[in-house]
Amino acid sequence: MKKFFHLLALALLASSLFAHNLLAQGNPTAMLHTSMGDIQLELFADKAPVSVENFISYAKSGSYDGTIFHRVISHFMIQGGGFTPDMEKRATREPIVNEANNGLSNTRGTVAMARTNHPHSATAQFFINTQDNNNLDHSSESSSRTWGYAVFGRVTEGMNVVDEIRLVETGSTPPYSDVPKVPVIIESVEIIDG
């Protein structure tokens, strides 16, 4: 656990330097080229520098190329970035710190980091909210804290593509459910600025 917090501190330091460079350039743009069309994103480097740096690193390394939207729930979200069409999990780097307390909300069209039940477990996977999902937001009330899902961007063009993806037919590929029967492939992720 001590090693985790040491690595976390180093990651935060590196991210703050990265964020300083990003902020000097403004929020970067990413283009998801999918088998169903393009989705353009604004990445909120000003509000979620760790998550944006993480997403850009995976994109520039080609880690997202050939992955799929492996979890599609029409009135919730579409999730991708971690599996190939044959449902093999892609290798990831160390998890990042959860930035869900950045004041951003999981509203329709926003992009957030996917994670396990552990709050600081996000790696490569992300999701696009297909409706307002305020229940996924960070909340801090009195002595209890509920970690949410860190929003780090929003769709600026191609929400029609997101809506087409959310309506695809899904089924089970044990142990996974809500998997599109015809793979929706993320062919590449292009970072336009940043």
What would you say this structure looks like, in words?
With 194 residues, this protein is of the alpha+beta class. It has one domain: Cyclophilin-like (Cyclophilin), CATH 2.40.100. 23% of the residues lie in helices and 31% in strands. The chain has 3 helices and 12 strands; from the N terminus they run αββαβββββββαβββ. It has an 8-stranded antiparallel β-barrel. The chain has a two-stranded antiparallel sheet with strand order 7-8. Strands 10-11 form a two-stranded antiparallel ribbon. A hairpin with a 3-residue loop joins β3 and β4 (77-80). It is globular and about 40 Å long. The termini are far apart.
Shape, principal axes of CA atoms: globular
* Order of the strands making up the biggest sheet: 1-2-9-5-6-4-3-12
CATH architecture descriptor name = Beta Barrel
Please give the share of residues in helix: 10-25%
The N- and C-terminal alpha carbons lie at a distance of: 33 Å
> For the record, what CATH class applies?
Mainly Beta
Question: In terms of quaternary structure, what is this?
Answer: single chain
Name the helix and strand elements from N-terminus to C-terminus, one letter apiece.
Answer: HEEHEEEEEEEHEEE
Instruction: Quickly give the structural class.
Output: alpha+beta
Mean pLDDT: 90
Give the number of DSSP strands: 12
